[in-house]
C-alpha cells in the first residue's frame, strides 16, 4: 500500500467534506414541490470516483454529521448520502466508467436512500407522509448533483486527475 496515496485520499476526503458542508448549506433551490440540494450528490460522485467507496462513505458521514451539528442538515442525509457514495465508489472501482458510477448515486441515494430514509423519518421525525413523497425530492437532487459532477469530472479528468493518479500509483 502506498502511504502517499492513503494520505492523498484522506486529505481529499476532508477537503470534499468541507466543500459538501459549505455547499450543502448554500446551494439549494425549488423545482416544483421538491427542494433540490444537489451539492451532496455532486460531492458523493467526485469522492466515490476519486478515492473509492469507503472513503466516499466516510466523506458522506462526516458531511452529514457536521451539517446536522450546524443545523443545516437532517438525519435523512445519513442513509441516503452514505449508500449513494458507496454505490458510486463500488461501481467505479468495478467498471472504471464515470456514467455507470453516476447511476450508482442515482440508484443509491435517489432510490435505495429513499426507501431506507422513510422508516427513519417516520421513527425519528414523526413524518407520516407516503414513501412516494420522498422519491421526487431525493431523486431530483441526485440527478442535478450527478449532472454537475459528471461535467466537472469530465472537464478535469485528463489534465488533472490522470497525472495525479499516475504519480501516486492509484
Could you name the key traits of this structure?
170 residues, mainly alpha, two-stranded antiparallel sheet, 6 helices, 2 strands
Quaternary arrangement of the chains shown?
Answer: single chain
Strand order of the largest sheet: 1-2
Radius of gyration: 16 Å
Strand content: under 5%
Strand tally, please? 2
Largest sheet: 2 strands, antiparallel
* Poorly predicted runs of 5 or more residues: none
Mean pLDDT over all positions? 84
- Secondary-structure element pattern, one letter each: HEEHHHHH
What is the helix tally? 6
The separation of the N and C termini measures 10 Å
The proportion of residues forming helix, as a percent range, comes to over 70%
- Overall shape: it is globular
Main structural class = mainly alpha
Total domain modules: 1
Overview of the structural elements:
- With 170 residues, this protein is mainly α.
- The chain has one domain.
- The protein is built from six helices and two strands.
- The protein has helices at 3-26, 39-51, 53-70, 77-95, 98-124, 134-168; strands at residues 29-31, 34-36.
- Helix 4 (77-95) runs antiparallel to helix 5.
- It is globular and about 50 Å long.
- The model has no long low-confidence stretch (mean pLDDT 84).
